[in-house]
Specification:
The protein is mainly alpha-helical. It has six helices and no strands. Helix content is about 55%, strand content about 0%.
Length: about 100
């Protein structure tokens, strides 16, 4: 008897997978495989990735961390920038040999 392929084994769990992805943006495919195994649907990482891709379910991470939009993080970043040396000073420093006055 031939076993069903990965997609056929988890087809009935598509909406559950979609829910996991939407609820936990940092969820990895390996973690999803572990959860599926606990539900009795064992599937390898490449097979799950292929099936998610086929279903149009994306696990792509953003290039912009969502935390950057929080007000406390914005304030901390602004404070950090204000406390950094000026660019003019940094430019002068890098143009000298290890910060020493040119001869």
């Amino acid at each position: 008897m031939q076993l069903p392929n990965g997609g056929e084994r988890i087809a009935h769990l598509k909406e559950r997978l979609r829910g996991w992805i939407q609820a936990e943006l940092d969820l990895t495919i390996a973690e999803m495989c572990e959860r599926l195994a606990k539900l009795g649907a064992e599937i390898k990482i490449p097979a799950l990735w292929h099936q998610l891709n086929k279903w149009g379910l994306s696990l792509k991470k953003t290039l912009h961390a969502s935390e950057q939009e929080r007000e406390d993080v914005k304030q901390a970043r602004s404070k950090w920038r204000r406390e950094q040396p000026s660019r003019a000073a940094a430019s002068w420093y890098s143009s000298t040999k290890r910060g020493q006055q040119p001869a």
